[in-house]
Amino acid sequence: MIHAIGDDAPSIHRTAFVAWNAEVAGKVSMAEGSSVWFGAVLRGDVASITIGKDSNLQDGTVVHVDDGVPCTIGAGVTVGHRALLHGCAVGDGCLIGMGAIVLNGAEIGAESIVGAGALVTQGKKFPPRSLILGSPARAIRIIGDDDAAHMRENAAHYVELASHTGTYRRMDEISGK
Q: What pTM value is reported for the model?
């Protein structure tokens, strides 16, 4: 579902995909080829949320903001299932692992990996190509070209998946019930 909050309505590129049970509300901008999958919630009520080109927010992801603290997700980003992004900045080409939490003011440099279940605490900043693991999260090493290429392939895979969503049908529509 796509909702305005007051006078603030989402801006969704015509090629972007929003699953029918995802919630996108308020000051949310979705670029070309981006996708928000089933059960995800993006609530731009007190600041903006920006989703870059070809980025995907997988099932159950939550993106929220604080007053004056926007959330920016760069281009070609993959956000894994049930991740929570709150008032943070994620650079281009990143992978945010399943169940990871990234809090207010945190900055994830381009082409970084935040591991599954990691907790990136408020205001923490990581340089590009960091492998970020743990709770609290810390940079373990710099990732190489192979990892960066794999992340680009993963983002491209979700662009391809989203291109087939026109074939998705609700079963009650098929059965006529």
A: 0.93
